[in-house]
Structure prediction request, 303 residues.
Amino acid sequence: MSMIYVKNDEGYFYHMNSEAIRSSLQRLYNISTNNPTVLQPFKGNDEKAVSTLVHENAGNDIDINRNSNGKNDVMNNNFVLPFRFERTPFFIIDGFYLLPTVKRTTLLYDRNADCFIKILHPLYLKAKVLSFFINRARSVYLLSEDLISKGLKIPKVLAYGMFTKGRRALIVTERVEGSSLHELLIRKKKTLPDEMYINVINELAKLHNSGYWFGDLRASHIFISGQDISSFVDSDSIRRNKPYRLRNIAKDLAGLNHPAVPLGKDHRKRLFDHYTSKTQISDKDRLLRCIKKYTERRWGSTN
Prediction:
């Protein structure tokens, strides 16, 4: 599908000929002009940064409510978010919910267009230099189109572009259906049928067999709808596994090997064997050692 090009003083973007998306991005650029600190990088759990952000934007059409624990709760004006996020959104501004995440990323949900907008901040010298030579947003769009054409379940990129100031990449994706594995297994402690775990492993093996790895895979990035996987999100973290490195594969598997996932050792072993049969990995012992190493590094324990 051809993309429509739009440019203004704040930056430029391409969108899939959608008036809702065009309007969403125009409102976002207006926020960038009128409330620039809203889109500045800060870590989601940095209360000092949040307080500063709130103070600097007081009276600027931002709705914020503080609960009894002092945390930020969004006043959603009888609007129920169609998804569950790991942490509570901070506030609404012109229909956007700011979602807490890592410092290098600003993540928003636009309730009017029902889409997610991610802004990638080149915080460090290497990223800043590369931003002049690599169009990160376009790369993510082209990769997503290629992987979707191969049957991979990742969100469709509806628009992409860049804020001129700071050369911040901008990616707009569709909202996927269902609940995350983190919500189902860890927060609600539900038990899923074995077939669902097999489906997750099959999708992961499909990506690995295509020559890629996720880079930041975790249960909160996999969404389930009904009895099927609806999508793996955070697709801008997907990277080429070239030259091939077993440790990259192990990092993805360790990301799913959360100690709170209600699976015993025997069940995890069966899933591991299924994965290696799908990917034709012969050096199972080395892969297991790598998974143990990265599980300990990421979650502080092994299973």
